[in-house]
What we know:
Radius of gyration: 15 Å
Number of helices: 1
CATH architecture: Ribbon
CATH topology: Umud Fragment, subunit A
Strand content: 35-45%
Helix content: 10-25%
Order of helices and strands: EEEEEEEEH
Structural class: alpha+beta
Amino acid sequence: MDLLFFEVSGQSMWPFLKSGQKVIVRKTPLKDLKTGDLLLYNSGNQIVCHRLIRKDKPGENYLLYTRGDLSLSAPEKITEEMLLGRVCGIIKNDKLINCGAENQQFLYRAIVIIAPLIAWLIERGQRLFN
Length: 130
């Protein structure tokens, strides 16, 4: 079983993931990935942890579309070669959260739907007060 441990940095997944939290990542076949999963992948010279919002298989290979929960930008398209794995656990306040648990999977799918609205409201609020 190949596991990676990664410390999150940045704000793109706030409030779900915060800078300094650690994630446990497992290599996972693309066919087993589900909408809402958190993925770790190479993007240029950075390692990114974003949420899977769509998976397509236009031919023999899958295309994965990810976005940070706090982002209003277009989804990033990633390929199998870029993928390091799926987040299977998150360490928050010295407790392990099992990302594969059924209640977590429901939450992750819900976040895919509501995150753009929350990001829009936050951006709108910042414009009003700046």
